[in-house]
């Protein structure tokens, strides 16, 4: 290829056990030509990551997780139209020593002005947005790392020689020293739960396979994806017996050991049930920024096991320590989930933080991001990109001296036009974003709810050494002083402790979701802190609705709601509106269930569908059989029409008026 010579580099990398990032920046034709030329010039099982790949061995960024656990020599990552940074990191983790990760990006001079298609995954904007803070952050890191090879269209490329690293001695097949120490411990474990966490390529899966070889008795392996357990299978040989998590739970299989690979990617409640079934369990999980992984897994899930044996593997095995590719990915994506042992000392100051800080003083927002990552189960690089460039994000930081010891992240919500808000209430529209604001309209009793303006607290965290000093509460107080909106809101997996915190911050509970979250096993709770008259009125109305419906929701959820239950048990105006929304528009059953329950008490009509579902508790399949209906849609339509009939029987004129009003709400232009 013209101008670019890599002679000897892959061989040098293989000798040193390293991998390198090579960035090709230019127009689409040029970058593609260069990438294909590199691919031809250097033998390997090259993987192309990107949509519309010009070669056969390819996968889209979103499908890459299916390849975790597999390994490649060299990869090309196409970030020209959109940069899925989680997939980029994942691709980096699959590369063997001696690999190049070739990254295709637009011309640096134009990149920051070009909309990034990946933003559709993490920004609520209907169109791709420009992402200047991330692009500048990325380019800044690339430019100052001498180990990154940067090849720009129209500019000469010189391969700077780097000081030779010592020769690498790949692992032999025998346990590495860290693996050996853990194996010693595990093979003597009488019973209990052990967890091994490590970044990519540290030999977790190999360790699990080696354990299978060494234990007496039998063992089962489970994991979110079987394909990702290839390494375990290789090291376990004939002792490898795999079962998918749900199949295992449904079976009566017993074994002396259960090995759960990538445990953090299995929903918490399912994992908890699996763990309870076996006398000895090994959980392994990757830390470093993938969704559903990280130290948060230990904090949230593993905290429940008294006597948990916890191990980590630090030394890389797939490549040598100090690998330049691993280092640049970690730097760019702030993969630093090492616990910070230093306690931030001294008095605390609270300051607002906006996205511009990423260009003015990047270390400051980076510290905020790291704190949030360490505290929150599901913080991933997607959040980093959202934090940097999505519209409507605001932050408050708590600093003790120069150290960030607490942070709060807010997202703007609401402000929909009154007509759109009504359409959301009626179930005709569900625009992107606006989690709590839309939920208040779609499940609550106020058609105008989503027209109010709000800021939702999406994350809040305080350094573990400074908790219970009032810092969390003060962060919320600062946020409420800064926000010129009708209310602040929060949506969180309900636990008594967290609710106590929000309550102490002045929040009022307005909604409890109808399903447990897969990740936490908790019901979603939504709460409001009103800041304006309109906010107070909405908050009061929704809280009263929750109090009135509490006993019925408790019946469906099987869990106590912490509000003073009470209110009219006969049909009132709110019920009429709700029931009309269910009967004549698209309100969901879950929003209407309490009003429907009161309707059944107030009518003598048979209403076999509604009574079957609500009074007899039949599930949808059984109820459909009884009613001779096929499918959920037909059942829902039947329930809606029964409701319409009951309203008409009560007061035909009123039902017709409401129907005609609500039907108008679908034309919301
Ligand atoms: C949308 C979301 O982000 S939900 C997730 C919230 N974040 C997390 O769970 C991350 C880990 N946890 C944390 O970082 C912190 O514990 C926070 C942010 C929840 C609370 O921050 P703190 O600074 O410790 O809270 P703060 O000291 O202001 O507490 C105020 C009141 O809340 C209540 N409270 C706070 N934490 C707890 C707790 N663990 N258990 C019971 N009550 C609590 C108490 O009533 C406390 O007052 P008190 O100490 O006088 O009794
Ligand atoms: N003791 C060992 N001897 C030889 N090869 C090893 C040893 N330990 C691990 N390996 C190899 O190193 C590579 C990385 O190991 P492994 O897949 O177990 O890591 P991991 O921590 O599970 O990483 P990932 O999450 O990236 O798959 C694999 O190719 C594996 O075969």
From TrEMBL:
PROSITE patterns attached to this UniProt entry: GNAT
Chain positions recorded as acetyl-CoA binding sites: 460-462, 497, 504
Entry keyword Transmembrane helix: no
Subcellular location: Cytoplasm
Main location: cytoplasm
Reaction catalysis annotation: cytidine(34) in elongator tRNA(Met) + acetyl-CoA + ATP + H2O = N(4)-acetylcytidine(34) in elongator tRNA(Met) + ADP + phosphate + CoA + H(+)
Binding site for ATP: 179, 318
Domain of life where this protein originates: Bacteria
Residue span, N-acetyltransferase domain: 348-529
Family: Belongs to the TmcA family.
Name under which the protein is recorded: tRNA(Met) cytidine acetyltransferase TmcA
Organism in which the protein naturally occurs: Silvania hatchlandensis
């Amino acid at each position: 290829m013209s101008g670019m010579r890599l002679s000897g580099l892959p061989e040098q990398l293989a000798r040193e056990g390293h991998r390198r990032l090579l960035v090709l920046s230019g127009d689409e034709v040029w970058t593609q030509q260069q990438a294909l030329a590199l691919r031809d010039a250097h033998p390997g099982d090259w993987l192309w990551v990107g949509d519309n790949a010009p070669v056969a061995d390819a996968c889209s960024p979103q499908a890459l997780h299916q390849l975790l656990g597999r390994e490649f020599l060299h990869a090309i990552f196409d970030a020209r139209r959109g940069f899925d940074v989680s997939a980029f990191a994942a691709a980096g983790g699959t590369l063997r020593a001696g690999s190049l990760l070739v990254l295709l990006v637009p011309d640096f001079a134009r990149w920051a002005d070009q909309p990034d298609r990946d933003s559709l995954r993490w920004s609520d904007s209907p169109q791709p947005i420009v992402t200047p803070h991330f692009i500048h952050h990325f380019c800044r890191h690339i430019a100052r790392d001498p180990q990154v090879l940067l090849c720009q269209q129209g500019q000469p490329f010189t391969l700077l020689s780097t000081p030779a690293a010592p020769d690498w001695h790949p692992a032999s097949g025998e346990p590495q020293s860290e693996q050996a120490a853990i194996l010693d411990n595990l093979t003597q474990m009488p019973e209990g739960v052990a967890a091994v966490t490590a970044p990519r390529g540290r030999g977790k899966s190999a360790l699990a396979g080696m354990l299978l070889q060494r234990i007496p008795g039998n063992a089962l392996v489970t994991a979110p994806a079987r394909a990702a357990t290839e390494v375990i299978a290789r090291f376990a040989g004939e002792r490898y017996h795999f079962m998918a998590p749900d199949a295992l739970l449904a079976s009566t299989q017993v074994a002396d050991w259960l090995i759960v690979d990538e445990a953090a990617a299995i929903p918490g409640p399912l994992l908890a049930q699996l763990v309870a079934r076996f006398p000895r369990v090994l959980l392994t999980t990757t830390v470093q920024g993938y969704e559903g992984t990280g130290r948060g897994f230990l904090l949230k899930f593993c905290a429940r096991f008294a006597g948990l044996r916890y191990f980590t593997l630090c030394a890389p095995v797939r490549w040598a320590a100090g690998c330049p590719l691993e280092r640049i990915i970690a730097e760019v994506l702030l993969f630093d989930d090492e616990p910070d042992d230093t306690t931030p000392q001294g008095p605390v100051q609270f300051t607002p933080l906006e996205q511009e800080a990423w260009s003015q003083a990047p270390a400051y927002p980076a510290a905020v991001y790291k704190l949030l990552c360490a505290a929150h189960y599901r913080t991933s690089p997607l959040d980093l990109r959202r934090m940097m460039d999505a519209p409507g994000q605001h932050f408050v930081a708590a600093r003790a001296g120069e150290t960030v010891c607490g942070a709060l992240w807010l997202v703007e919500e609401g402000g929909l036009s009154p007509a759109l808000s009504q359409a959301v209430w009626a179930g005709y529209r569900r625009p992107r974003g606006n989690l709590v604001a839309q939920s208040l309209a779609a499940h609550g009793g106020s058609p105008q709810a989503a027209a109010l303006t709000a800021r939702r607290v999406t994350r809040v965290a305080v350094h573990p050494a400074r908790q219970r000093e009032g810092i969390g509460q003060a962060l919320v107080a600062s946020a409420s002083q800064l926000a010129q909106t009708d209310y602040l809101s929060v949506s969180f997996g309900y636990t008594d402790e967290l609710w106590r915190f929000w309550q102490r911050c002045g929040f009022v509970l307005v909604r409890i979701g109808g399903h447990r979250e897969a990740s936490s096993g908790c019901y979603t709770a939504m709460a409001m802190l009103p800041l304006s008259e309109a906010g107070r009125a909405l908050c009061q109305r929704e809280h009263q609705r929750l109090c009135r419906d509490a006993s019925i929701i408790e019946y469906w959820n099987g869990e106590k709601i912490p509000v003073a239950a009470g209110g009219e048990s006969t049909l009132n105006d709110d019920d009429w509106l709700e029931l009309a929304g269910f009967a004549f528009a698209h309100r969901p059953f879950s929003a209407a269930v309490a009003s429907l329950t009161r309707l059944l008490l107030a009518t003598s009509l048979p209403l076999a569908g509604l009574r079957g579902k609500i009074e007899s508790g039949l599930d949808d399949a059984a109820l459909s059989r009884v009613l001779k209906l096929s499918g959920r849609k037909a059942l829902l339509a039947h329930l809606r029409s029964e409701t319409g009939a009951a309203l008409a029987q009560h007061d035909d004129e009123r039902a017709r008026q409401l129907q005609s009003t609500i039907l108008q709400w679908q034309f919301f232009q």
